[in-house]
């Protein structure tokens, strides 16, 4: 079992930055693929970024060059640095963990709200 707690959301003006954190407990997240997802009002939840245990990253096209996912194994925490934020980035951001060999993310945090004003 893995428990995930996100933090760092808030209200920011377009062009600004936020850094989200996801603290994992229960098992070390270094054995999981960690991901960030977001859900805008009235829309489906969508993939934002992922980080494998070997350090490989993947990003949605809409955030490439603006967002950076990283992890701190010692603190069991994964981060999402978001720069040059746009109003369309507004939504609830979720952290998720996918066990090795699994095809789906099995563990989810409660989400943190990010609002970008124009």
> Please, what is the oligomeric state?
single chain
Mean pLDDT: 94
What form results from the Cα inertia axes? globular
Order of helices and strands: EEEEEEEEEEE
For the secondary structure, the number of strands is 11
Percent of residues in beta strands? over 45%
Measured between the Cα atoms of the first and last residue, the distance is: 40 Å
Account of the 3D structure:
This protein is mainly beta. The chain is 0% helix and 54% strand. It contains no helices and eleven strands. The protein has strands at residues 3-7, 10-13, 18-25, 32-39, 45-51, 57-59, 67-72, 77-82, 91-99, 107-108, 112-117. Strands 2, 4, 5, 6, 9, 10 and 11 form a seven-stranded mixed β-sheet that branches. Strands 1-3-8-7 form a four-stranded antiparallel β-sheet, with no helix packed on it. β7 (67-72) and β8 form a beta hairpin. The termini are far apart. The relative contact order is 0.32. The model has no long low-confidence stretch (mean pLDDT 94).
Key features of this structure:
single chain; 118 residues; mainly beta; 7-stranded mixed sheet; 4-stranded antiparallel sheet
Quick description:
The chain has 118 residues and is an all-beta fold. It has strands at 3-7, 10-13, 18-25, 32-39, 45-51, 57-59, 67-72, 77-82, 91-99, 107-108, 112-117.
List strands and helices in order, with pairings.
Blueprint: E1 3-7, E2 10-13, E3 18-25, E4 32-39, E5 45-51, E6 57-59, E7 67-72, E8 77-82, E9 91-99, E10 107-108, E11 112-117
Parallel strand pairs: 2-11
Antiparallel strand pairs: 1-3, 3-8, 4-5, 4-9, 5-6, 7-8, 9-10, 9-11
């Amino acid at each position: 079992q893995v428990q995930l707690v996100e933090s760092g959301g808030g209200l920011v003006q377009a062009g600004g930055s936020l850094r989200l954190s996801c603290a994992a407990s229960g098992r070390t997240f270094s054995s999981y693929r960690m991901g960030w997802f977001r859900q805008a009002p009235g829309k489906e939840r969508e993939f934002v970024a992922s980080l494998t245990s070997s350090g490989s990253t993947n990003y949605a096209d809409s955030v490439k060059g603006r967002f950076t996912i990283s992890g701190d194994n010692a603190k069991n925490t994964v981060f999402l640095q978001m720069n040059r934020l746009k109003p369309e980035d507004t939504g609830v951001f979720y952290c998720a963990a996918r066990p090795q060999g699994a095809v789906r993310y099995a563990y989810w945090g409660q989400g943190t709200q990010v609002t970008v004003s124009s």
